[in-house]
Design goal:
The protein is built from 10 helices and 8 strands. With 324 residues, the chain is of the alpha/beta class. A hairpin with a 2-residue loop joins strand 1 (20-29) and strand 2 (32-40). Helix 4 (166-173) packs antiparallel against helix 6. It is globular, with a radius of gyration of 19 Å.
């Protein structure tokens, strides 16, 4: 049992670690090569896992939400992050490039239809991909919904979340001059793309620390600094995407286009106390999507590793097995 919360640890709900049976670098054009791996059952039910960020990269722990005797688990690092190359690059790196990359992976692996599993930015990307390619999606499993709207960006980078975490918010805003704090995404953009590696790394770590501190309900302050290479890719890619409003045509586009998913079922797992992606977005998505189920997890925040979130996701994937 977890000594702090009295709950089982997240690992109690997860499957044992499994090693990949296939790892490759896939050339997707535009000078980018992305890392792709497969594990689990070679002839199993295919599920593609979309990591968060943008820029977070995939990790071995993400394999553990799926029964490896049932699922063919596909993970990849999106352009510019993780083991994909070039690292931290924003050239030819937009939402629509990523949607095309997902389709390229599906075709390269000779998969007709698959489950799409994503959290946070991964949920955003899963929805946009499914709206572009609904016939290829058997089910969407989403965690910590982010709809890439200005309201959500204003909440997190305009002081909304900062009202609950004023001390941590100060650490995020203090490095920025007062006359630039009205637009923190813009202020950080100028520094993350300054060309000065020391400045970029310092502001990248500050950017990553603000988000990472708020990820788990158990956190009560910043932990250690993120590794420089990870922080720089994470911060630059997130900031690049947020500066361009996710490269969507209009604010609110995802909800406006939910009619495209009328024949695609989905499950939404949302932490009740998610400070990064507040539950209002998951609720709006559920209301706009008749084929969805919303699981609101009490006493849970944003992180994939939260015990209640992990339990709900594993139960969801186990529950899909008989019907697929």
């Amino acid at each position: 049992m977890d000594k702090v919360s009295g709950q089982k640890s997240a690992s109690s709900y997860l499957y044992p670690p499994v090693d990949p049976f296939d790892q490759r670098m896939l050339d997707v054009g535009d000078g980018h090569r992305i890392y792709v791996e497969q594990c689990g059952r070679r002839d199993g039910v295919p599920v593609v896992v979309l990591h968060g960020g943008p820029g977070g990269g995939c990790s071995p722990s993400m394999r553990r939400y799926f029964d490896p005797s049932v699922y063919r688990i596909i993970l990849f690092d999106q352009r510019g992050c993780g083991r994909s190359r070039p690292h931290a690059s924003v050239e030819a790196n937009t939402t629509w490039h990523l949607v095309a990359d997902i389709e390229r992976i599906r075709r390269a692996l000779s998969i007709d239809r698959w489950i799409v599993f994503g959290g946070s930015w991964g949920a955003t990307l899963a929805l946009i991909y499914a709206q572009a390619h609904p016939a290829q999606v058997a089910h969407l499993v989403l965690r910590g919904v982010f709809l890439m709207t200005q309201a959500e960006l204003s909440w997190f980078y305009g002081g909304g979340a900062g009202q609950f975490w004023p001390d941590v918010w100060s650490r995020f805003t203090d490095p920025v001059p007062l006359d630039e704090r009205h637009d923190l995404i813009g202020a950080y953009h100028r520094r993350l793309f300054s060309g000065d590696m020391m400045v970029e790394t310092r502001f990248a770590r500050a950017w990553a620390a603000w988000e990472n501190t708020l990820a788990s309900i158990e956190n009560d302050g910043p932990g250690g600094e993120s590794p420089a290479e990870y922080a720089r890719a994470f911060a630059r890619l997130e900031n690049h995407y947020f500066t361009h409003a996710g490269f969507l045509v209009r604010d609110g586009q995802i909800l406006d286009d939910m009619g495209r998913l009328k024949n695609v079922p989905g499950t939404i797992v949302q932490g009740r106390y998610d400070m990064i992606c507040p539950p209002v977005s998951a609720h709006k998505l559920h209301k706009a999507w008749p084929g969805s189920q919303l699981i609101m997890v009490p006493r849970a925040g944003h992180a994939l590793s939260e015990p209640g979130i992990s339990r709900a996701l594993v139960q969801t994937m186990n529950g899909l097995r008989p019907s697929l």
